Amino acid sequence: MDSYSAAPEKVAGPPNERVRRGETPISPDDDPFYQAPLGYEHADPGTVLRSRDVEIGFLGLVSQRVKATQLLYRTTNLHEGPEVAVTTVLVPAHRESDVAYPVLSYQCAIDAVASRCFPSYAMRRGARPIGAFVQAEYLLVIAALAEGWAVCVPDHEGCHGMWGAPVEPGYRILDGLRAAMRCERLNLSSSAPVGLWGYSGGGLASAWAAEVCERYAPELNVVGAVLGSPVGDPGSVARRLNGSFFAGLAALMISALTQVFPGAQDVVDRHATEEGKLLLDKLQTMTTAQALWQFRHVDIGSYVDMTADELWDLPEVRHIFDETKLGKSRPSSPVLIVQAVHDEIISVDDVDALAAEYQRIGASVTYHRDGLCGHLLLHPLSAPMTLRWLRDRFTNRPVDEHKTRTMWPTILNPSTYLGMAKLGLITAKVVLGQSVERQPLSTTDAR
């Protein structure tokens, strides 16, 4: 164990703690647990700075019978500077002490700046972040736990909600895994096989982790990454969503990127109307659903002194979108990309280009290009296939070279419905607050 973790008395701030059952959680903005302790920047990335057990609640209401531990750890930002982040780690209730079971890092589609949308807060009992998509994704977190795997759910946007920032989500994900494996109370093996999984905004974060892993955390045994509808080209997404029902997603990303790139803030200062500046500030406090509803069908060009197309073509904006585009490095582990052809949010052309680029630079890519599902439906329906693919990576099965590109719609696969039946049973237990024993969805998927 590193010396920093071994000497908690030197850490300024609350010690390791156990949150009292039924206690209403404090917002991350006000919770001392999230504050960086004195001297943390001298610790190695992945060092555990604080830990606590927390109570999980489905939709913030129904107490869950799961063991959940939160870790504050040292990580790295886009500019290679030190920062802190939080991950929530769930471990199976029953385990064989001599078995190094797999560890999955599940990246939620946070897609917001407001801290009440962070998984570490939104999954806790008593939290009421209405409109945070994290609460629905909890069902897939539990499905992964039911496989018998430990699951890390990091706040991959960091403590300041940097939605859309390049590279640094990967650092936070990998350092969260390092922290989980170093935390003695979790008793995870440092050599355990590791998987990554996320969809949409979570797929984007997972892709960054897959791209930087070989350079940043080569000691982690990452064996596979599932990138569900990753936002491979944020610039293309911004153009596509502007004026659509989902324009709020682009507005949220712009609001966050003004904090990441000084050039973005300069563009706002020079070209945004007073109303536009006020709305960008307001977006900092909105949940994802709130932003979607308020900004539905909005033309972002109406809040600047030019058209939206002229805005996207500004040199400063083109630079930002170039920096946030995926495909800069080769994922060292096999990758499964899942994408709907008729996705109304993420263009299949952008994901086609990302898959082709990964293959060009030598990555092992399996691409499920679904011909019937839309963006929202594909994630749950592809869960059995995804979990089976991850199970194969965890058990060292070779990637099937004959299935590197699949077109058969998930919705027409009979095994999908067997998996959905199991997921329905898991959902029922979650809603009733019952313990979810081992019940793998992965065994329902046909080969």
Structural summary, described in words:
The chain has 2 domains: 3-233 and 325-434, Rossmann fold (3-Layer(aba) Sandwich), CATH 3.40.50; 234-323, 434 Repressor (Amino-terminal Domain) (Orthogonal Bundle). It is 37% helix and 16% strand. It has helices at residues 3-6, 119-122, 134-145, 168-182, 201-216, 234-241, 247-260, 262-271, 274-283, 288-294, 308-312, 315-323, 348-360, 375-381, 383-394, 414-432, and strands at 17-18, 48-54, 57-58, 62-63, 67-76, 82-91, 103-107, 150-154, 194-199, 222-228, 335-340, 365-370, 405-406. Strands 1-2-5-6-8-7-9-10-11-12-13 form an 11-stranded mixed sheet, sandwiched between helices. Strand 9, helix 5 (201-216) and strand 10 form a beta-alpha-beta unit. Helix 3 (134-145) crosses helix 16 (414-432) and helix 7 (247-260) crosses helix 10 (288-294). This is Secretory lipase. One of its GO terms (biological process) is lipid catabolic process.
Concise summary:
With 447 residues, the protein is α/β, with parallel strands linked by helices. It is built from 16 helices and 13 strands.
Ordered list of secondary-structure elements with their pairings:
Elements: H1 3-6, E1 17-18, E2 48-54, E3 57-58, E4 62-63, E5 67-76, E6 82-91, E7 103-107, H2 119-122, H3 134-145, E8 150-154, H4 168-182, E9 194-199, H5 201-216, E10 222-228, H6 234-241, H7 247-260, H8 262-271, H9 274-283, H10 288-294, H11 308-312, H12 315-323, E11 335-340, H13 348-360, E12 365-370, H14 375-381, H15 383-394, E13 405-406, H16 414-432
Parallel strand pairs: 1-2, 7-8, 7-9, 9-10, 10-11, 11-12, 12-13
Antiparallel strand pairs: 2-5, 3-4, 5-6, 6-8
